[in-house]
Amino acid sequence: MGVTAVLILPLLLLGISGLLFIYQEVSRLWSKSAVQNKVVVITDAISGLGKECARVFHTGGARLVLCGKNWERLENLYDALISVADPSKQTFTPKLVLLDLSDISCVQDVAKEVLDCYGCVDILLNNASVKIKGPAHKISLELDKKIMDANYFGPITLTKALLPNMISRRTGQIVLINNIQGKLGIPFRTAYAASKHAALGFFDCLRAEVEEYDVVVSTVSPTFIRSYCIHPGQGHWEASIWKFFFRKLTYGVHPVDLAEEVMRTVRRKKQEVFMANPIPKAAVYIRTFFPEFFFAVVACGVKDKLNVPEEG
């Protein structure tokens, strides 16, 4: 009996591993077929995440519209995609469009250019984002407005320009790449957090409004998008809850992993995705159900960082 069990266990593990491999391969192929021949607009395609999304959707056979502020970097991305394209699979030449979402006046023209070229947009990936860090009283109102233009007014202006086409065709998907700061505020990021809260609120409302037209609205909220070359260092962190919490936040999500999750979100038509390790997820629930405790922990961390003695 014992010998039989010893023999069966490795075979069982091997069988489970084989099934998982087959499932992953089928899911990967299914994901790519879901965007075949689809017109996909990606904003800030020259960012780390934008490049990975471009790679994944281009491999899947999408008709890409790559938007970015720098023409030279757009051309470099174009060349990279063409150079790695598999000749045995059908892929389409990407269209490049100069677009700075903080310049609201040009967004309507870009939307018209895309619609005139392809006649429709099937998937819109709102990926562009501008970050700022610093005490609220030291950040100018002009900079606050610039952050709101890039992170809120820009994406919703492009969405509103393309949405009537989706509604008339009764199909389409809008994906917002947001951030955990759309769910909770982190000190010294007031303008950025405000813009992310605003964007999430807009697209949550829009989701319900366009459901009857079979238009899907998805939001993907990672902690932070990690740089390709930045890895967690061996910092000497003090044993405090606040520092442990924010150290976990800063590690973030790799662009490759996030791009694959965006593809799964499109394929499965998920409404909301929150990519984070257990610490940030717990923080969101604590903020919701135990707000006073959450505020106290964050405030203690700010005082510790600024070396401000507690009054009283």
From TrEMBL:
Keywords: NAD, NADP, Oxidoreductase, Signal. It holds the Pfam family adh_short. GO terms for molecular function: all-trans-retinol dehydrogenase (NAD+) activity. InterPro entries: NAD(P)-bd_dom_sf, Sc_DH/Rdtase_CS, SDR_fam, SDR_family_member_7C. One of its GO terms (cellular component) is longitudinal sarcoplasmic reticulum. Coiled coil: none annotated. SUPFAM superfamilies: NAD(P)-binding Rossmann-fold domains (SSF51735). GO terms for biological process: D-glucose import; intracellular calcium ion homeostasis; regulation of release of sequestered calcium ion into cytosol by sarcoplasmic reticulum. Belongs to the short-chain dehydrogenases/reductases (SDR) family. This is Dehydrogenase/reductase SDR family member 7C. The gene is DHRS7C.
